[in-house]
TrEMBL record:
InterPro entries from the UniProt entry: Nucleotide-diphossugar_trans
Organism field: Acidovorax bellezanensis
UniProt protein name: Glycosyltransferase
Family annotation (SUPFAM superfamilies): Nucleotide-diphospho-sugar transferases
Domain of life: Bacteria
Length: 250
């Protein structure tokens, strides 16, 4: 992906996805602002969404490509697989996918230059497995249409074999020898790496893990919960993560 004087740099895209009512437009707007502060040079910011109302003008909003799935299924992030369509609205170049509820705390430039065909976060809870966490992944647009084609033609088999989209995605690309992981310190988990261990969590505040560039919020709380000192499980106390306000803003 490095360019030479005779080779133009590949276009860079940040892609996120918002559907349903769990996340409002402020998540997309703040994500854009965090990217702008932490990524040098030009990039295109695209939000695949079913509702563009309230999203800032710098963000290009496009419909989420249909996966043609049966209605009423549990939401397991399957929609993210639409990013692997062979022609995603004519976009070409290198894409970095970010979940809308991450908090960016450091430079993003290396996410576009880190060697590897497909990069993803290594699973936190079970690192002996190959499964990745798809809160942050990078690929060349249009390069892996077989991910989506196989999913569509084997959906019933896949949804019974894999718990969610990231398990399927990791397994599929691992079998092709294309799966690689970000350096562990780049994308830490707030839940696993940013909360002081018990019982010090009762008097020590959550913190930004050393070397963090994108802090991942999954499971028990999202950025506003963390900022307010809320966890969505009983008996798991945290003090307010005041550091969130320093980064998660427009």
């Amino acid at each position: 992906m490095n360019s030479t004087p005779n080779t133009p740099a590949r276009e860079r895209h940040i892609i996120c996805m918002k559907w349903g009512t769990k996340y409002g437009p402020e998540y997309v707007n703040r994500l854009y602002a965090m990217v702008r502060r932490n990524l040098q040079g030009d990039f295109r910011f695209v939000c695949l969404t079913d509702d563009s109302q309230g999203i800032r003008a710098e963000v290009q909003c496009l419909p989420i490509p249909s996966l043609d799935l049966p209605k009423g299924l549990p939401e397991r992030g399957w929609n993210k697989l639409a990013t692997f369509t062979q022609d995603l609205y004519g976009l070409r170049g290198t894409a970095l996918f970010l979940d809308v509820d991450v908090v960016i705390t450091g430079p993003l430039d290396d996410f576009f230059t880190q060697p590897g065909e497909f990069l993803i976060i290594h699973d936190y809870k079970r690192p002996w497995r190959i499964t990745g966490n798809s809160s942050v992944y990078r690929w060349e647009l249009g390069a892996h249409p077989d991910v989506l084609e196989y999913f569509r033609s084997h959906f019933e088999e896949i949804r019974h074999k894999f718990r969610n989209e990231q398990a399927y995605l990791s397994d599929f690309l691992h079998r092709q020898g294309k799966l690689q992981y970000w350096p562990a310190e780049w994308c830490p988990s707030f839940k696993y790496h940013g909360i002081p261990p018990w019982p010090t969590n009762y008097w020590k505040a959550p913190f930004v893990p050393p070397g963090a560039r994108v802090v991942i919020f999954h499971g028990e709380c999202n950025p506003p919960d963390a900022l307010a000192g809320r966890r969505n499980r009983r008996f798991r106390f945290i003090k307010p993560a005041t550091w969130v306000a320093d980064y998660w803003h427009e």
